[in-house]
Amino acid sequence: MAVAADPALTPIRARVLAGGRLSLADGLALYRTRDIFTVGELANLARERRHGRKAFYNINRHINYTNYCVLRCKFCSFYRPFPTAGPGSARGPQALPISGQARSATEAGVPARTFEGGGYEHSIGEIVELAAEAAAQGATEVHIVGGLHPRLPFSYYTDMCRAIKARCPGLHIKAFTAIEIVHFTRITRPRLSIAEVLTALREAGLDSLPGGGAEIFDDRVHAEAFRAKVGEQHWFDVHGTAHELGIPSNATMLYGHIESVEERLQHMLKLREHQDASLRDRRAAFQCFVPLSFIPDGSALAHLPGPSGLDDLRTLAVSRLMLDNFPHIKAFWIMQSAKLAQVALNWGVDDFDGTVVWYDITKREGRGSNRQELTVPQIRRLLREAGCEPVERDTFYREVKRSSDNAAGRDPAAQSESAAQAGT
Ligand code: V47
């Protein structure tokens, strides 16, 4: 039997058409209805009102500097405990690297020092090499995050930013989740405030903050799934302070584990409220919302199924409809898969994220190398096939115009695609 139009959505349709604001009850109706076509249609309408048929992507590189972490979040399969006793604990001469993982695009080197137990850490020199390699291939942004390492000093992070900017002055540094920023306030002596940490990082070259670490803003979920992590108040303090200082940021939501749809919607409403205040009173605001589809493999919640494809689509669409003051909704293809992210471009999503290249935090299909890359031609093809106009953006969503010269420096395949486009 065909899915019937749901009369419960009629007032919601009217509100969306009038540019009105949706309530928690509206959000619940959108989550509960079987009329998924109307949900998608309304989300697409909101998306097209802002962006027409444009779909954004960027040439970026994710760099995860360490997987050592003092936290034990149940959803996370990335972290490794830092050895506290026995050989290796001092990170002295006994701390023998057991392998050098090849991590560069050329597979030529830039190894992380990987230790017994699978923990790794990158030196600043290695990170700069990765950033320089990315810039040489046309990247406009590096996205740098890692675990909360118990021994690395704050100077490691400021020196990292400074060294990247010295080598690649034009590269945008989007780095450190709110959780890492709070960690930095705790490792400095005397302790620095959030504003002082952000100011020091900005002086060193930090340009914006990614949206990670938000998970679900709810005390029950926090207590059950990521108890030791700083809570929502700290997350908002960091983003509020960043916005006051004029540093733009993103916001995420990790969904599809132990939270209810009502808790997801409350999460969105808290972000919407914060964004209202930032747009009204602060010098910067959130640029995009990134719903992250939970990948259970290897985590302490591996017994959970994770979100279905329909849940992914619906959550992206509902996000577009609820977060009327967020300019962009991103489907981070690493988490939702490239196939679903492509479909989502007609369900409220306008941003596909980027080329990524290496990603250590999650991997959708199985083990093996963490090289997870889409080339520019692959991304553009996916976007075009979805009926969109592919637009390369920088981190501030400004269109990147490339001459054929700098396209050539970035990717031979992209060059041939540009040539093909020129002929159409
Ligand atoms: O903070 C951890 C999440 C985040 C899992 O700002 C997991 O543009 C799914 O924040 N399954 C890091 N998610 C990634 C992130 C991000 C990614 C892309 C773009 C942007 C942006 C931000 O990944 C963590 C955590 O919330 N995460 N484990 C997992 N098993």
Secondary-structure blueprint:
Layout: H1 10-17, H2 24-32, H3 36-51, E1 54-58, E2 60-64, E3 99-101, E4 112-114, E5 120-121, H4 124-136, E6 141-145, H5 154-167, E7 172-175, H6 178-187, H7 194-204, H8 219-225, H9 232-245, E8 249-255, H10 261-281, E9 286-293, H11 309-322, E10 328-329, H12 333-336, H13 338-344, E11 351-354, E12 356-358, E13 371-373, H14 376-385, E14 389-392, H15 404-410, H16 412-422
Parallel strand pairs: 1-11, 1-14, 2-6, 6-7, 8-9, 9-10
Antiparallel strand pairs: 3-4, 4-5, 12-13
Ligand V47 binds at residues 75-77, 177, 210-213, 215, 250, 252, 254, 290, 292, 294-295, 299, 332, 335, 353, 361-362.
Features:
424 residues; alpha/beta; TIM Barrel; 2 domains; three-stranded parallel beta sheet; 16 helices; 42% helix; 14% strand; disordered C terminus; binds ligand V47
CATH topology group of the largest domain:
TIM Barrel
- Average pLDDT rating: 89
Q: Into which percentage range does the β-strand content fall?
A: 5-15%
CATH class of the largest domain: Alpha Beta
Structural domain count: 2
**Radius of gyration from CA coordinates:** 21 Å
Shape: globular
Output the helix-strand order.
HHHEEEEEHEHEHHHHEHEHEHHEEEHEHH
- Report the sheet with the most strands, covering strand number, pairing sense and barrel closure: 3 strands, parallel
Q: What proportion of the residues is helical, as a percent range?
A: 40-55%
How many strand elements? Answer: 14
CATH homologous superfamily annotation of the largest domain: Aldolase class I
Give the CA-CA distance, first to last residue: 43 Å
Count the DSSP helices.
16
Based on the coordinates given, report the CATH architecture of the largest domain.
Alpha-Beta Barrel
Low-pLDDT windows of residues: 90-109, 408-424
